[in-house]
Amino acid sequence: MQVRASRIGVVFLAGLFLLTISQLAGAADHPLRVTQALVDYTAKTVTISVSGLDDSKHLAPPKVRMAGSPLVVTNSVVNSGGHTGEVTANLPLPIPTGSFLLEVAWGKDRDDTEQTFSLALGLVGPQGPPGPQGTQGIQGVQGPQGPQGPQGPQGPAGSSGGGPPFVWVCTPAFYPQTGGGSGPRADLYVFNGSSSTANVAVHILDVNGTNLAGVTIPSSSPPTPYPGQTGSSTVAVASLNTLIVTWILPTDSPDLAPNVSTTVQVISDQPIAVSTDFQFSGFHALPCSLLPK
């Protein structure tokens, strides 16, 4: 009976030894590791995430040290199935600035089950100056041509004739084989459409371009000179006003007789509109043409 009892004792001790070895091996399968540390400057706390925890029923309360000094742990949560957990600790006041060694111990009543982590504390510094511009990269291949866009709206009308001086021409300024006497009558209308006073010159020209201003109109009765300006002289026309110039159409007989008005040239330093009304056998209102530049 004593031999049997001894054998039972040996078996019991061997089982206890194997159970202890199994528990130690299980603890070694999950080494503690700090995966993240988040600082809350408002609450003045640090929340630390760890992995590799033992089964929660074997855990002692967590311990946290920063730069060798213990921190007060305010909360801890364990996920037994995933062997992970979170521990929240108060930061020292005032919160220091710099990089500090964070130590976490959270195992079976053993201080050797701990993990270190570098924790940076402090406010974000001012933005640094921009770095130098990098070298230009190589030009990429040209992309395909895109579809044609819709037609845009028509733009506003441009200034007449490309800018001053504005030159208008009214031709012809006579009726072949007729005229003289007290009629027919010729009227020239010059409208100043600008917001400024226009300086206008009216030149009644013969077939050779001679200015007939002051020359007697052929066959006019009583004898009447052609109107208009000579040289560089002008007449002022106020904004939105119309200058009306009237004379008697000359007798053109024979054809191309001397001093017969052939063309009327109107020159202005402001945008204007010009037209004529030559009265013979009815009214003949004709617009004049703005010379292109």
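That was protein one. Protein two is written in the same sequence-then-structure order:
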Amino acid sequence: MLELYHAHISTCSQKVRLCLAEKGLAWTSHPIEFARGEHLMPAYLALNPNGVVPTLVHDGRPVIDSSVICEYLAEIAPSEGTTLMPRDAYGRARVRAWLRYIEEVPTAAIRVPSFNGLFLKAWRQMSDNQRAGYIAATPLRKGHYRRFGTEGFSKDQMDESAERLRQTVERIDFAVAKTSHWLAGDTISLADLCVLPTIVRMSDIGLEDAWRDLPKMTDWYARIRSRPSFEQAFYPGARVSVAD
């Protein structure tokens, strides 16, 4: 039995939903509402002491960290649905190198414009005590929220984020030019699925100009959006816009 504790608009949750869809695995949904602080409540922290989403519970045992969950799903169901990890050691190493890069560069970078564009207004409406209490209760990324302050991230931080996101789409473009279709070989893999939510978020908040001059990247994005898993993971209510 697979249960997923996730947030609809969370990019890390979207990664796991994409993998579940590609694998064709049945799962029970447990939506977590950030606005209610459900990710910081004792019952959830007992599953995931980091207080972040998603958390996969498989036969009563929690698995945390989105990239770890994706690899876990590929391992427990290797022959079901799409094969998301290569069968050879070198191929798996290529995918894992992408996963480490995705965690270090685009996953961290997209938080900066996301927070400035989507969450600053609500954050400002909180009292100083509410903000301080939220930061104190957050197991991870306390510094992230402190840097966010009440004015949002600075222009220098936004510029650095844009640089890192541009590097990401350039690497996608270069990788696809070498393999014809996908990031780590001739077939789709966890590398493609785990970077996709960042690209979708970039599109949703008006950063598509970052890849307009990159034809292979543009082709890759269109190709992956045409897969049935895309609509299953990005169902109505699972995407955002600055206007929201």
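The first strand starts at residue 2 and ends at 6. Keep this in mind for the problem set.
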